[in-house]
Every structure is written in structure tokens, then in C-alpha cells.
Amino acid sequence: MSSLVSYELNESVATITLDDGKVNALSPAMQGDINSALDRTVEDGAKAVVLTGNAKVFSGGFDLSVFASGDTQATLAMLAGGFELSLRCLTFPVPVIMAATGPAIAMGSFLLLSGDHRVGSPKSRCQANEVAIGMTLPIAAIEIMRMRLTRAAFQRGISMAATFTGDAAIAAGWLDEIVEPDAVLTRAQQVAAEAAAALNAGAHVGSKLKARADAILAIRAGIDGLPTEFAG
Fold first, then answer.
1. pLDDT by residue (tens digit) across 64-114?
2. Per its UniProt record, what SUPFAM superfamilies does this chain match (predicted)?
3. Is residue 213 classed as helix, strand or coil in its secondary structure?
4. How many domains does the chain have?
5. Is residue 232 one of the residues assigned to a domain?
6. CB neighbour list of residue 140: distance below 8 Å, 6 or more residues apart
């Protein structure tokens, strides 16, 4: 589909693979390609979606070169685009299954939290590392974490940049299940196929929109407030 994202439809399951050859940075270009692939799943009538990384990493987060550029507008646009992508996954009309083929860091971890089911491996390190690298977490990120993590993990994840792996990642709410590294994608596609066969799409999206209504409003407010939040 592009040099950053590939797309495959197998019966009713669409698989979107992120692979920039490095850490799958969620640059503006990567965000655009993921959204284009999601558009295609709708056009193709897919009944479930798998979003996966390359063999080494799910995603290392936003493109740090954009932050380093000093271009405030570009930075705000990238931040907004990333959280809009999370919102799109949280409200997508069919199940979205995340395949954490490796670490999910910063925005990569927030995207991971935006799936309906998250499959990982013992190598799937989950971390919001912002405070460790001198960044204050955006409100939108905090609201995504608040929605999916346990209370204790939420606090440790934000204030201590705590890393969660293995059973601790499941207990904290980062992942739903763990399999061997070479089985992550296969298992995610299996979960997607089962959901596609078993779930009524209208009931699925209607129910998750009700369940996530407060979080969706809070994340939206965070996105809309980014210019004020990071003014100057």
C-alpha cells in the first residue's frame, strides 16, 4: 500500500502492518497511511481489523524529529493526528485487534490501548516514557490510559514511566493476552476472525460507544485543547 504501511484482506479480516524499517514512528506520513488503510477496510467491507507492527516493534511513538524541529504547528498537528487515530480505533465500526509484536512506547502504547483486544508477547514492553525524556503527558494520553489501565498502573505509568511486560502488562490493562513472539500476529488474526464471525457489527459499535462515551469526550477535549495545553 505504501512504503510505511501494508494492507492485506483475508476473507473478512483486514491486516494493517506498520513497518518503516525502524521503530514505526507515528510520523504525520505514517498516520496518514494508517488512516488510508482504515478507509480501505471500510471500502472492502472487512468485519474486523488487525493492526500490527514489524517483527521488532509495534511502535516507538511519535517522530522525535518533528519535536526537535521547533515547528510548533507541525508538532501540534502530529500530536492531534496521533490522538485522532486513537479515537478512530476506539470508535471504529468493527473490532480492532492490536498485535503488539514488540515494544509499544509513548504514542505507540496509547495506540495499543485503543484496540478492542490486545495480543502481545513476553517481549511486548509497554511504557509511557514521557516523563523519563522530559515531556509532560498530554491530557488526551492521560485519558486513554485512565480508560484502560487499573488505578495503580495508571498512576505508576504516568508519574514513574513504569514499564510493564508479561503478566504484569495483562494485570495492569495494557494487554489482554500473551503468546510466543512468533505467534502474536497469527493469534491476533485468529481473534479477529472469531470476532468477525461471532459479533453483530451494529451491536458491537453501539455498545462500545456507550461504554466509552465519557472517555471519548475527555480525549476529544484533550485534542481540542492541545494548542492551549502546550502554548509557548
1. 999 999 999 999 999 999 999 999 999 999 999 999 999 999 999 999 999
2. ClpP/crotonase
3. helix
4. 1
5. no
6. 79, 83, 86, 219, 222, 223, 226
